[in-house]
Design a protein that fits this description.
Strand order of the largest sheet: 3-2-4-5-7-6
Oligomer: single chain
Largest sheet: 6 strands, parallel
Shape: globular
CATH class of the largest domain: Alpha Beta
């Protein structure tokens, strides 16, 4: 039965949002969107506010990623929206179903120079799946439903609506559209069978699984396919942990050996971008499995590329009726390489050096992080080490900026993660460069009692720029920060707590205090500026 809703534009929007499972709002206060606040306040709908609009969008994206449902950010007109564009763009590259609702100057005075008057749509349309101005309160439920449907339809991504003042403040009524989950995309069965036969018949196959495997709820199907076909699995993004580290087919350290020796590389739910050598794996044939035809790579010619619901495709792989090659020797070869790399890593993570090497930071973190901890990477050089040394035990527990590589995600992701999982450890891994983008939003976390642990790798430089520039030119410019800066004191001033660590032996006790603190706590680790992560590793 159709439900009729009435009220001002904010009430009509909230009715449609609730119907789609949206349960919280991230925002920075602005008069253009007061009706949305009014509707939320009067119905007990949680509002979390930030100090910069990018953090609101990143928080909404963290909710969308972690909970596989829409995340909501509400931004005021003009600079509120433009401050959120980097967050929207990250969500676009990460296929995150984020909805941004923006204020807009009144339409009846358009062109007269109202406060913050600008047309947002030309800015946001290239990085959204749906962008629309809603000119009537009566049209709000229809528009919200259309935007959310677009955001949730594979290949997922963000959507944007803005409301002129008279539309959102006016009273209207409308039927609340029914919520219809997007129908699964059926892949071409011949293409699926072709891909399965290539994998099963390969002598040295490898699977690389990415974020869409988690977003598409295809983790169990991936495990079934890997086990049925006996194929070693590497992961990136939110696919990390899809096979737990102890699984006999789970690999992390031997990727270079695997890709050099593989005869078939199966990339599932992640693009053939710079992280994967743009899909160039030498003589190996490539099978690219994507969740929608739009995600097929245009710059390579794969041997097969099934496009559709990843669960259905992977389940079909698991049930492949044809012959299977024996991959036992190949798996054993990779396990030998994996074990050797783990032994080298263990030595690096235990290094007693002064100053502290980044590897030691992660060696100590591995001792205190719970299996279900959510780790958030916001940085370049320091976070690259996290990709090497941390092995998430569960899928959907690793958040990084993704292929867009936008710094400043940290505090927004932390807020969204804490709201999503009040009882789990939330740990932000942040370079000292990245700290400059969002650390002020520690105040938002402290004020709203959202405790997280922040570990800053403080080497006083832009590590991914300083060393390469020196190698190229013999000098570097614009690559130095203040050495030894007390980011922990910044956090203390904002209502949290923290400490600076200069000795490796002090790392463990400091991290223990951080996770027991109950407030935002920053461990400011002074790391070796000469220890640079190799740029060519692409472990993100």
């Amino acid at each position: 039965m159709t439900e009729r809703v009435e009220g001002h534009g904010g009430e009509l929007a909230l009715a449609a949002l609730r119907a789609h499972g949206v349960r919280e709002m991230f925002t920075l206060s602005g008069g253009h969107v007061f009706p949305l606040y009014d509707a939320a306040h009067r119905t007990g709908f949680p509002i979390y506010d930030v100090r910069h609009e990018q953090s609101a969008v990143f928080a909404a994206e963290a909710v969308a990623k972690l909970q596989r449902r829409p995340g909501l950010a509400v931004l005021t007109a003009g600079p509120g929206v433009t401050n959120g564009v980097s967050g929207l763009t990250s969500a676009f590259f990460n296929a995150s179903p984020v909805l941004v609702l923006g204020g807009r100057a009144p339409q009846f005075r358009w062109g007269s120079g109202s406060l913050q008057e600008m047309d947002h749509l030309p800015l946001v349309a290239p990085v959204t799946k749906h962008a629309e101005t809603v000119f009537s309160a009566d049209d709000v439920p229809r528009a919200v439903t259309a935007a959310l449907t677009a955001a949730l339809t594979p290949h997922r991504g963000p959507a944007f609506l803005d409301f002129p003042l008279e539309a959102v403040f006016s009273v209207g009524d409308a039927d609340l559209p029914a919520v219809t989950p997007p129908a699964p995309i059926e892949a071409d069965p011949d293409e699926v069978a072709k891909a399965a036969a290539l994998i099963a018949g390969a002598s040295r196959p490898v699977i690389i699984a990415g974020s869409d495997v988690y977003a598409g709820d295809a983790v169990e199907a991936l495990r079934a396919a890997a086990e049925s076909l006996q194929v070693p699995v590497f992961t990136n993004g939110m696919g990390r942990g899809a096979l737990p580290p102890e699984h006999p087919l789970a690999f992390a350290k031997a990727r270079r050996v695997a890709l050099k020796g593989a005869d078939v590389v199966v990339v599932v739910g992640t693009p053939l971008d710079f992280r994967l050598a743009f899909g160039d794996f030498g003589d190996a044939r490539v099978v690219h499995v994507v969740d929608a035809p739009s995600q097929r790579a245009g710059h390579v010619e794969p041997a097969a590329s099934p496009a559709g619901d990843l669960r259905l495709i992977l389940t079909a792989f698991a049930g492949h009726p044809g012959d299977r090659a024996d991959h036992a020797d190949w798996i054993a070869q990779l396990r030998t390489a994996e074990d050797a790399a783990k032994a080298r890593d263990a030595e690096e993570m235990a290094a007693e050096t002064d100053p502290i090497r980044p590897a030691r930071v992660y060696g100590e973190l591995r001792k205190v992080l719970a299996p279900d901890a959510i780790t958030i990477g916001d940085g370049g050089d320091f976070v690259s080490y996290a990709g090497k040394y941390l092995e998430p035990a569960q899928p959907g527990s690793w958040l990084d900026p993704g292929p867009y590589g936008c710094l400043g995600t940290g505090m927004g992701y932390a807020m969204g993660a804490r709201v999503s999982h009040p009882d789990r450890q939330i740990c932000v891994l942040m370079g000292d460069g990245a700290a400059g983008f969002s650390l002020m939003d520690v105040e938002s976390l402290a004020r709203q009692r959202l405790p997280v642990v922040i570990v800053v790798g403080n080497n006083g430089i832009w590590g991914l720029e300083k060393h390469p520039m020196r190698a190229m030119y013999g000098y570097d410019v614009a690559a130095d920060l203040q050495p030894g800066l007390r980011y922990d004191k910044v956090v203390e001033a904002l209502g949290g707590a923290g400490e600076t660590v200069e000795k490796a032996a002090d790392l463990g006790p400091a991290l223990a205090r951080a996770f027991d603190a109950g407030v935002p706590y920053l461990v400011n680790v002074l790391t070796d500026p000469s220890d640079a992560y190799p740029r060519s590793s692409n472990l993100a």
